Amino acid sequence: MQGLRHGLLSDGGVRLELTPSAASPLAIDVAESAETRIQRLIAENPVIIFSRPSCCMCHVMKRLLSTVGVHPTVIELDDDEIAALSPRPAPDLYIGAAPVGGLESLVALHLSNNLVPKLVQVGALKNHHLLIN
Description:
Layout: E1 2-8, E2 14-20, H1 34-44, E3 47-51, H2 56-67, E4 73-76, H3 79-84, E5 92-95, E6 98-101, H4 103-111, H5 115-121
Parallel strand pairs: 2-4, 3-4
Antiparallel strand pairs: 1-2, 3-5, 5-6
């Protein structure tokens, strides 16, 4: 069984790590495949980034979302789990269980003024943050 550890990051995000623990109330069945775990996490979190350690694009993605008021769930993957994201490598962003893609796709959403409405739609951002003309 595994337990969940978390800590605050300097960019305002939260780092989640799975650590061995049989007594954790957040225990996960280790028999769950990486693909199944990834699909479950996508379904359970309105905004989720699959990241890898020391990835500068992942850092920029987290900062952009933080700037608009969203603190996504960030899952740092090891090499075996990154392969389960195929065909897209990390960073890989999902909003409302829909694949957005990497940093370039996120920036395109932001620059086209479609990011904030999408975040409001999935409940990751409150409606009062929108300026309606």
